[in-house]
Amino acid sequence: RSRERRAPAVLMMAEAQLCGLQDEITCSVCLDTLTDPVTIPCGHSFCLKCLTDCWDQSQECSCPQCRHTFTTRPELNRNTLLNEVIKKLKKTTLSSPPPQNYTGPVDVECDFCTGEKFRAVKSCLTCPASYCQTHLQPHCEVATLKHHKLIDPDRNLNDKLCEKHQKSLEIFCKTDDSCIYTVVQMGLVLRI
């Protein structure tokens, strides 16, 4: 593949990864973004061409992913919903400027990258740390991390902590000129 054609696919995968859709839009046969996606009775989706080629070269029709074997060759119907999602991701990715992966002088860098630092795409007030697309992934997938407060990248995360309690600021009361944040302890929710 040429670099020009590969770049949008890489950008779309990165954007899909942020949305938690990377597995859903990737064909497990060619490992690329689905093209003419079809869904078979076991629920897995593949490129029409990839699945047709697999089944044409084999004695039996089985799912390339879960290995479920079908007694008769299933009719392949295009998954129009999945196809529309992929089209929209492509359109969004192609219409937005390509992200700069490495940090520049004004960018916030990822706190977890080693060596060359990647540009942070989000900062977490709960952790507090800044994350590139790759290191942000657990915050999208792990149940306990999904509840963390993510904001646009911010290099001054310590300024967003209460000096007295070292907790992330959630609300500031102008009347009392004081910070209010939630403390969850032994099942009780307290406002301090």
Topology at a glance:
Elements: H1 3-19, E1 37-39, E2 45-47, H2 48-56, E3 61-62, E4 69-70, H3 80-95, E5 122-124, E6 129-131, H4 133-141, H5 143-146, E7 150-151, E8 171-173, E9 178-180, E10 182-185, E11 188-191
Antiparallel strand pairs: 1-2, 3-4, 5-6, 5-7, 8-9, 10-11
For the CA atoms, what is the radius of gyration?
23 Å
Low-confidence stretches are 1-8, 184-191
Overall mean confidence score, pLDDT: 76
Query: What proportion of the residues form beta strands (DSSP E)?
Result: 15-25%
- Largest sheet properties: 3 strands, antiparallel
- Total separate domains: 3
Strand order of the largest sheet: 6-5-7
Name the CATH architecture of the largest domain.
2-Layer Sandwich
Categorize the overall geometry. elongated
Distance between the termini: 57 Å
Q: Structural class per helix/strand content?
A: alpha+beta
The CATH C-level name of the largest domain is Alpha Beta
The CATH superfamily title of the largest domain? Zinc/RING finger domain, C3HC4 (zinc finger)
Number of beta-strand segments: 11
Helical fraction equals 25-40%
Return the string of H and E elements: HEEHEEHEEHHEEEEE
* CATH fold description of the largest domain: Herpes Virus-1
Number of discrete helical segments: 5
Q: Your description of this structure?
A:
The protein is an alpha+beta fold. It has helices at 3-19, 48-56, 80-95, 133-141, 143-146, and strands spanning 37-39, 45-47, 61-62, 69-70, 122-124, 129-131, 150-151, 171-173, 178-180, 182-185, 188-191. The protein folds into 3 domains: 3-95, 2-Layer Sandwich (Herpes Virus-1), CATH 3.30.40.10; 99-160, 30s Ribosomal Protein S14, Chain N, CATH 4.10.830; 162-192, no CATH class. Strands 6-5-7 form a 3-stranded antiparallel β-sheet. It is elongated, with a radius of gyration of 23 Å. It starts with a helix and ends with a strand. Residues 1-8 and 184-191 have low confidence and may be disordered.
